[in-house]
């Protein structure tokens, strides 16, 4: 079970740059969104995910007992913008946030 969760987190971490264009702000446009994905840009809504790192760490360390508001917002955001995230557990997504 742990190996599956780690594999999912690793797969999400690897695929995160592919989906980063969906995190770009609405003023970015398609061309700059795709270039932002390759450069690791933190513009727009990607900040929601990056700002959840501390909450994600607490969630992982507490085995899911501590759920912060920033983590909740990031989980909601990831699931709205990524098909893979919709099927992933909260723990797998929190681990993927930490891997960024």
Automatic annotation (TrEMBL):
Tell me the organism: Luteimonas terricola
Residues making up the signal peptide according to the UniProt record: 1-20
- On whether Signal is a keyword of this UniProt record, the answer is yes
Q: Which parts of this chain are annotated as the region Disordered?
A: 25-45
- Per UniProt, the ranges with Low complexity bias are 25-44
Q: Which InterPro entries match?
A: CHP02448 (IPR012661)
What protein name applies here?
DUF2388 domain-containing protein
Q: Which UniProt keywords apply?
A: Signal
Q: Determine if Nucleus is one of this entry's keywords.
A: no
Domain of life here? Bacteria
According to the entry, what is the taxonomic lineage of the organism? Bacteria, Pseudomonadati, Pseudomonadota, Gammaproteobacteria, Lysobacterales
Query: What single Pfam family name could you report for this chain, choosing any that match?
Result: DUF2388
């Amino acid at each position: 079970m742990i190996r599956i969760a780690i594999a999912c987190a690793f797969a999400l971490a690897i695929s995160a740059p592919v989906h980063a264009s969906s995190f770009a702000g609405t003023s970015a446009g398609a061309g700059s969104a795709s270039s932002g994905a390759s450069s690791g840009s933190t513009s727009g809504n990607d900040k929601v995910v990056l700002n959840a790192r501390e909450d994600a760490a607490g969630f992982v360390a507490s085995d899911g007992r501590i759920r912060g508001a920033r983590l909740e917002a990031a989980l909601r955001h990831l699931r709205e913008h990524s098909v893979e995230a919709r099927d992933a557990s909260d723990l797998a997504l929190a681990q993927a946030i930490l891997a960024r």
